[in-house]
S9 family peptidase (Glycomyces rhizosphaerae), 694 residues
Amino acid sequence: MSEMQPAKPTAPRRDHPRTHHGDTVNDPYAWLKDPEDPATVEYLKAENAFAESRTAHLATLRKSIFGEIKSRTQETDLSVPVRKRGWWYYGRTEEGKQYGIQCRLKADGDTPPEIEAGTAVEGEEILVDGNELAEGHDFFSLGTCDVSPDGNLLAYAVNYSGDERFTLRFKDLRTGEDFPDDIPNVFYGGSWSLDGSVFFYTKVDDAWRPYQVWRHVLGEHEDKDVLVHQEDDERFWTGIDLTRSERYLFIVSGSKITTEVRYLDAADPTGEFAVFGNGRVQGVEVSVDHQGDRFWVLHNKDAENFTLGWTPVEDTTQFHEVIAHDEAVRLESADAFADHVVVSMRRAGLSQVAILDNGQLTEIQFDEPIYAVGLGENPDYDSRQIRLGYTSLVTPSSVYDYDIDTAELHLRKRTPVLGDFDPADYVQYREWATAADGTQVPISIVAKKGVTADGTAPCLLYGYGSYEHSIDPYFSIARLSLLDRGVVFAIAHIRGGGEMGRQWYEQGKLLHKRNTFTDFVDCAEHLVDVGWAAPDRIVARGGSAGGLLMGAVANLAPARFAGVLADVPFVDALNTILDPTMPLTVIEWEEWGNPLESAEVYEYMKSYSPYENITDVRYPSILAVTSLNDTRVGFHEPAKWVAKLRHESPESDVLLKTEMEAGHGGRSGRYDAWEEEAFNLAWVLDKLGAAQIA
């Protein structure tokens, strides 16, 4: 190693014993939890310097990938306008600017206006310009951006650190002037009262849990704000929303498996919220929407995959079933409009959207074998056109309007991909891997046409597998830089996610969590067996809870993968879930179990938690990416993981890269985010042996 290259960092080990259920272990890197400790910061900076030195040979490739992403992206662009009352709302971006600009235009007719990107728009009003708000800051995030029902007022919230605690502000859209109201430390979201005199917002506790709903009267000092609801059960989040009909305000408190809804006439913002239905029932999840004289209700009482029905507004305990439970169909949401309901569902690993109109349920059909579809932004309660978002592994994000009366789909926009991109140059497939217990696990695959399943292709395999969150097939401009270099991209739809219904989730959580990890390895083996991946050319990627997956499979099958890319990884799971003072820990007990109370849960988590199971084997190359201000997965988790990997397996190739001015989502500006992704993809290509392939 030359004198100019930094040495491999070594974190000092300090005794820190932990005792639970008679098990005493030492956690020598627990000191890395403190971001205020100069030794911690020094260590993170040393790791950054080391990561930069070890990837310096990829600088040209990183620059090429960044240029490819930039050249394929229409930098000056705008979204399809969406109608709300007398306005069309849309967002736009401008070349050379990091952040989006939120705008509106007076409405004339029901068809979205055709606005040409980059041209001046007569009558345009700018609601929020993220570039102006971000000026002078290394990080910027917009929390809420909500226009009052009458269209005169705007509530918006800003954050400059990445810790997801926002400052709430208000703007008079008639004059363009900000109100003096300035409310710090609020959470995402919030809702206006019907007359726009009151704004409701939420605050978080020390564990980053949104637990309070406050009422703010516009123009008054925040000291006069009223606490409307406080959720004392630490397993529950709480939030507030205004129905599409603008008739009711809902306070929703939810844990991982239980929901309680409270409702109030939006015209009476100082009134008392009433408990919906039978209130909180352990293990029962409920979602509610309003339509005329009824509330539409989706619930899972005695219905694992949920059932849909309605209650009268005057008696919310009277449930009338409309769509019965189906073991093969997971009902995910029901959105009420003036005279119909849009039902989002999932069948055989694919998302579906259906319209319930005059008692008939009509599914909207698409031609591709694998895709993702979902309800888009639809604020207009009286509309007979439904805005949809659609994508696939080969089809860029697309906006459709579905006409309920004619059953026609109107393509409003497909995200432009500049250059010589042609969807016909790429192919997508659905494969099914057989897990160790015989379960069939779906895999979505995309490759450049001409890349064949002959057992020689490099492959990037992505996975998540937690919280019933589905990783549906989606298009990515950045991913083209892999595909065009001959890399196969695959998504393993493993248990713990929601792709195959509620039972898919149940089989990958709590004391069944190891299914998530073994499914992923079985998917990798299947790709090798059918020829979609060369045995020695697979890199695994996952983030957050998918980062737990990455750490677990690195321990479980280190020889299977050439590399592991772990984004903001949850790799110190046992220690975090043992500490109820850590952000979100108590909320997480219904996902992972409570190792404080259960020796069985403790031993089970200890058996798979990545940090606990590091040995002296030769690991695949590992790149762990984290952010100093991440409030969801603490930076200390990957920092501790990497430090212990260095100690236990000193010959392994392990890198840690920490963004010092960012949160869970990484860097905030789009150009910064492209640079970050170019760094990651160049590393992936290097580990796949494809870095030199043009």
In short: The chain is about 20% helix and 35% strand. The chain has a mean pLDDT of 94.
